[in-house]
Q: What sequence folds into this?
């Protein structure tokens, strides 16, 4: 049986939701999948491959994900790994938006130059202004969360990763 760890960083829960859905898509009788946060204890030797995900906020990868990738880069230099990143920039999937999103991610990738991800998935998430800036409630703003997730796109990306990571 092959084993994949999906490891994510999340502040508002969107990365967690997406990581769990990727796990559900990958899991079958021949593939064990564990979903963990970057703060969990992880037995890296146990897994055959990894998928690492993070939100992108304020034009950068979450600090805890960046630190995790930097700390454990020696693992990801040796084993198959794919990344996914979630940001509101991807509310429209265009070449320009992908390029912009990669501008936000590239500083993290430059810190791990010997890690060669098999793929990088870029997805939209949910924008909930109150989770990001809770003090805005004091001003009486009534902004409903906007959900831009494309579950079909996320599941298809996950299916492709399974083939690429476990070949």
A:
């Amino acid at each position: 049986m092959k084993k994949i760890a999906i490891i994510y960083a999340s502040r508002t829960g969107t990365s967690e939701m997406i990581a769990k859905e990727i796990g559900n898509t990958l899991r079958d009788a021949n593939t064990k999948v564990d979903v963990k946060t970057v703060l969990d204890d992880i037995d890296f030797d146990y897994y055959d491959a990894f998928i690492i995900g993070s939100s992108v906020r304020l034009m950068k990868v979450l600090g805890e994900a960046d630190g995790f990738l930097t700390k454990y880069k020696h693992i990801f230099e040796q084993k198959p790994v794919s990344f996914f990143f979630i940001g509101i920039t991807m509310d429209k999937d265009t070449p320009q938006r992908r390029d912009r999103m990669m501008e936000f991610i590239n500083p993290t990738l430059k810190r791990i130059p010997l890690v060669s991800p098999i793929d990088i998935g870029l997805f939209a998430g949910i924008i909930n202004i109150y989770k990001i800036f809770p003090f805005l409630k004091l001003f009486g703003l009534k902004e409903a969360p906007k959900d831009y997730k494309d579950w079909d796109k996320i599941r298809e990306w996950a299916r492709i990763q399974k083939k690429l990571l476990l070949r």
Q: What stands out?
A: The beta strands are 2-9, 31-37, 49-57, 60-61, 81-86, 120-123, 126-127, 146-147. The chain has a mean pLDDT of 92.
